[in-house]
Amino acid sequence: MTDWLQRTELLIGADGLHKLKQANVLVVGMGGVGSFAAEFLCRAGIGRMTIVDGDRVDPSNKNRQIVALDSTVDVHKADVMSQRMEDINPDIQLTAIKEFLTPDLMMELVTTQFDWVLDCIDSLQPKLYFLGAAVTNGVKVASSMGAGGRIDPQKIRIAPIFETDCCRFAYKVRKGLRRKGFGKANIIAVYSEELVNRESLQLTDGSNFKRSYYGTISYIPALFGINMASIVIRDLMQ
């Protein structure tokens, strides 16, 4: 038993720990949700992981993203996360992709080589392409809905995407999936039943498919990410 995983093994047993070490997980998006999801998967002992993000750390990320420090501003988020996770688990088999995924690359990447894929993308159209690739290729997928504009951690839920409620972003995802012919897709979502604070909305120039964003508090995206990691870990141990 590796000493740093001693307490994990006490909880889930040697067999559970072995299952996590043998698993291969893909996490797309190293922002407020994905960075926490990836780190907690790593801390649980996941043996192989691929992380994807084409963005660099911006000072505005510091209020909610584990990658964001004064010392990491303008560094690729994927590089920051790679260094963190390899410092946690030097034995992890880690691949970092420092680019924004195109639809074609998603279809090529999201395959059954992965036991689970996590969608932590915050723009609608890339999210729909990613989820479509996962469903088409028969890969287990969990998807994060909108974490912005909310402050109540007790309203966060886990449910199949077509059973989500109260989240406008989830509504748009469901609508987009139906239009693409994925109306019966088995996608697990992390979402909040708290109504979004519309006064916190900020419009953008529309670059990278992102037309707007909501204000965020430090802990809500992190809790979304922790819930994403828990979906994978609890399933793998079955």
UniProtKB/TrEMBL annotation:
Membrane-spanning segments: 213-233
InterPro entries registered for this protein in UniProt: ThiF/MoeB/HesA (IPR045886), ThiF_NAD_FAD-bd (IPR000594), Ubiquitin-activating_enz (IPR035985)
Record's keyword terms, sorted: Membrane, Transmembrane, Transmembrane helix
Pfam hit, one: ThiF
CDD domains the UniProt entry points to: YgdL_like
Residues in THIF-type NAD/FAD binding fold domain copies: 11-233
The protein's name: tRNA threonylcarbamoyladenosine dehydratase
Organism name: Pseudanabaena yagii GIHE-NHR1
